[in-house]
């Protein structure tokens, strides 16, 4: 039986990010609003942004969820470590290089790790 591709996932770990960007509700919404057209994805509903984890320094920060017509974009932000974790999953193919470079530049990451998975 031939395996079928269900989707594509880009996993990004970005280090030494700009604290002002990663802790700003406005900037996080802007990130999604600019990323979706770049990777030719259509937003489905509003961007969900919650700030929590305030009982421990390393868990404090925003989490983001943006449904897209073909799946979702999620992100978690550790202000304490200035690390941004982003997952882009879609049943529709997209250019992971464009998403990776845009995300790295947007959060002004000094270092990053990227993995791209075909599922």
What order do the helices and strands come in, and which of them pair?
Layout (H helix, E strand, L loop, with lengths): L7 E8 L3 H4 L2 H14 L9 E5 L8 E8 L2 E8 L4 E8 L5 H11 L4 E8 L1
Antiparallel strand pairs: 1-5, 1-6, 2-3, 3-4, 4-5
End-to-end Cα distance, whole Å, is: 16 Å
**How would you sum up the major sheet?**
6 strands, antiparallel
Q: How many discrete structural domains?
A: 1
CATH superfamily: S-adenosylmethionine decarboxylase
Strand order of the largest sheet: 2-3-4-5-1-6
The assigned structural class equals: alpha+beta
Percent strand equals: 35-45%
Tally of DSSP helical segments: 3
Q: Detail the poorly predicted runs.
A: none
Q: Could you name the key traits of this structure?
A:
119 residues; alpha+beta; S-adenosylmethionine decarboxylase; six-stranded antiparallel sheet; 6 strands; 38% strand
Q: How is this structure best described in words?
A:
With 119 residues, the protein is an alpha+beta fold. A 6-stranded antiparallel beta sheet has the order 2-3-4-5-1-6, with helices on one face. The relative contact order is 0.32. Helix content is 24%, strand content 38%. The protein is globular and about 50 Å long. It has helices at residues 19-22, 25-38, 96-106, and strands spanning 8-15, 48-52, 61-68, 71-78, 83-90, 111-118. The chain has one domain (8-111): S-adenosylmethionine decarboxylase, CATH 3.60.90. It starts with 7 loop residues before the first strand and ends with a strand. The protein contains 3 helices and 6 strands; from the N terminus they run βααββββαβ. The mean pLDDT is 96. The longest helix has 14 residues, at 25-38.
